[in-house]
Amino acid sequence: MAQNVSRQLQALPSIFETGCSIGDVAAGLVALMFVYRASVVVYRLFFSPLAKFPGPILAAATSWYEAFFDLWSQNFPDVLSDLHDVYGPIVRVSPTELSIRDAEYYNDLYVLGGKRRTNLIAGNRAGLGMSDAIATTVPHELHQLRRKAVENFFSKQSVTRLESRIHHEARSLDEKLLRYAGTGTIVRLDHAFSCVTGDLAGQFACGENPELLEGSEFNPECIAAMLPVAVLKAINPHVAGFRMFHLLSEGRIEKIKDEISKEKDHDEFHEKTSIFHHILRSDLPESEKDPARLKREAFALLAAGTITTAGTLTTITYFILANPEIEKRLRVELKRVTDCYPNQVPRWTDLEKIPYLTGCIKEGLRIARFMRRNPRISPDTDLKYKQWTIPKNTPVGMSICHMHMDPEVYPEPYKFIPERWIGDVDPRVNRNFVPFVKGSRNCLGLNLAWAEMYVVLGILFRPGGFKMSLDCDESDIVPIHDSDVGIPKADSRGLRVRFD
Ligand code: HEM
């Protein structure tokens, strides 16, 4: 067979009778491609407007430099830190992008819309099914339009009005954990936290509780969401994964549209109100209300609101349980606001007034190491950084973990020390704290995240609550890999907690 093909190829007439064989043409194309690639590299190294910026030659020549670390060891944020040690506060991290490590500059880069327009890199998080979502919208105006329509819903006032949802979820978690109390059972608390934050993200984003917490042994069963609906329906329409899938369905959006059309008057805070309700009631153009776009928005919100908050709760809980002195002090300080539990769930506003709890949450947000460098683009004006002029339309990023792990600002940065946030602190401690980024594209769900963390931790560590001990160590928890959010080692055992 192979011989036949080869004979037929040889028998082909030479191209246009010029004496050129297919082999010659292929070789010519390869040579052309090589010359093209080589001239792109020469341009990037010597003629690009970014050629003057310091950084490794390979990073300036090709984005495969970063891709290599992403694929090989997923530790590019640490590599980047080393690059800044070598090249200084501004580094060219790729042919088209710069990184700055200088906390003084943070507020100049991450600005509000009134100060400067901010674009994103096109294709950011492409392939994740989130295109057209607020978090991935590239042009400034469209992003602001989409964001403004839902911003109020995520305000502190609005989250406070809907706080009963968080209370209900935290109480359910507590009741579920009660069945393990005193049994010596080991529970994956990281899974339990994902269920809680997933349920809440579902309610805030889509107006329906996916009831992940009902999954057996806190198994979010998200994997089921990948199966076709018909198969899931046939297996069991009540599995948690199915409910998550249902939230993301266009049918759900049509149902909300129908509900809204029958509304007599708008109750902003009715039982099921959600981001979907806000968008569908808003005066956004109809194209923005297209079910396919809303489906992608819902997916982005569920992703943004679930893993992040659950990961932070996991980090905080680990460090509290790993340090008996911290646990003891926290429980004592929580007494005055949790005294009435279970009759009354402690309120976010009261929990916020416990500085030690706030210190624990801030330490968790600091150490959880959100690794990406959140690049921003100034489309209209060049940026000035020290002696450097950064041409407009250049993506510039500042890594959150560089801000959070600066040993000058946070001595022993890998240690969990809630006290560093209490009392008369060095102003740089607060200046460097940017877990939610800043500016016109900062985290939309930060109030929801704060409220969830306060209430869940307030209940979990109330005096007289569960007796818990760890069945894992720091290497199972602390993120070392960059997967957009930081994740621990591949064979992590997760947050395994024994209920003694
Ligand atoms: C501890 C919890 C959380 C952390 C640390 C966190 C962190 C962040 C960060 C760093 C960004 C900026 C991303 C970028 O520049 O590419 C972001 C954006 C965003 N977050 Fe969060 N987040 C958390 C929880 C939540 C929650 C609970 C929600 C909502 C359910 C949410 C919704 C969003 C959205 C919609 C954006 C995009 C905002 C925009 O582009 O205007 N996040 N978050």
From TrEMBL:
Instruction: List the InterPro entries hit by this protein, alphabetically.
Output: Cyt_P450, Cyt_P450_E_grp-I, Cyt_P450_sf, Cytochrome_P450_monoxygenase
SUPFAM superfamilies per UniProt = Cytochrome P450
Any Pfam family from its record, for instance, is p450
What is this protein identified as? Cytochrome P450
Sorted alphabetically, the keyword list is:
Heme, Iron, Membrane, Metal-binding, Monooxygenase, Oxidoreductase, Transmembrane, Transmembrane helix
Q: Which cofactor does it need?
A: heme
Give this protein's Gene Ontology molecular function annotations.
heme binding; iron ion binding; monooxygenase activity; oxidoreductase activity, acting on paired donors, with incorporation or reduction of molecular oxygen
Binding residues for heme: 443
Q: Which residues cross the membrane?
A: 25-46, 299-321
* Keyword Transmembrane attached: yes
State the family it belongs to. Belongs to the cytochrome P450 family.
* Highest rank taxon of the organism: Eukaryota
Which species expresses this protein natively? Neoarthrinium moseri
